[in-house]
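Quarterly update from the structural biology core.
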Amino acid sequence: MLQQPVSQGGLFIRKKAPTIYDIAQRAQVSVATVSRVLNGKNTVNSALRSRVEAAMNELRFRPNRVAQTLYHHRSNSIGCILPDIVNPFFAQLFLQLEVGAFERGYTMIMGNTVSTRELERTYLRAMVERQVDGLIYLGGLTNAIHPSEEDLQMLQDLTERLPIVTVNGDLPGVNIVSSVKSEEAAGMRAMLEHLNHQGHTDVAFLGGLQDVTNSIEKLEVYKEFHPDHPTEWVQLTGLDIGAGAEALRRVFQAAQVPTAVVCINDLVAAGALMTAREQGINVPQDLSIAGFDDIFLAQIVAPPLSTVNHNYKELARIALDALLSSINGQPTERSIRVPTLLVNRESIAMRKP
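Predicted structure, tokenized:
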């Protein structure tokens, strides 16, 4: 039966939490013996250990995690900094990271920077103060084309205090443990090849930001396939649904219109679908649309999006393995790549003759 707080004169008086002294008295052992059991020492014989554990259960004792952290120099927690938890890409990846950390006996502490650089710096400092055992770092400075020298020095200082693994980003010149990336360039290449096999040689590029490495990396692949594209066919309008809607509107104002568009992500592709619907353009019969990321939205829009999956579970597993290897003093690879997966649905069709 659950213990309830005692009411006196309308005020609730909570019972004092049991201490190791209470455990020692109940088990009829020394406080030192209780301490050794709590700290996992194997010098306590099985009979005494059983008495201590029974007393803990009877008193509903919960260990002081802060004290254990100080004793073991481990918090069994991992920090995760990301720019936008509302973005389905980061939400999907964080979910896999959190589940994987829990399976390994760690809790995950998230810092959502809402794409604000100052808040990002604040969270970086806070993770050190929280004494996390390591940090998974997504977006923000890890995707900046030209991070400042001050930020790079701050990050270098942080790596002397805790191991850092970046996911789908990197910090060149900073002593991080590993940069773990899905092969986004290869994924974009596979999608463009698929469009080409469907007869689409007139393809536009929608969305992205000119100061974000992932956007530029995908754009460079697009330029390899379509070096002579009209200027209006590249629209770096942003990363959200509104950016996709605006990008396709601009493309269709050009003198020549494409038969297909490849989008920086699925949100942008969803926006392009909205504009196509507004303008009476049939997808995929009149216009094929390709996304990227394979978020849940890609499956429920009409038509469902052909896209590229980041192999989220594997990406998270490898990032956590690299971080925990470093925490445990084992060497790791500086650069690790994870293959992406082409997902073909209904938003791409053979080009009309």
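The chain has three domains: 6-63, 76-183+312-340, 184-309.
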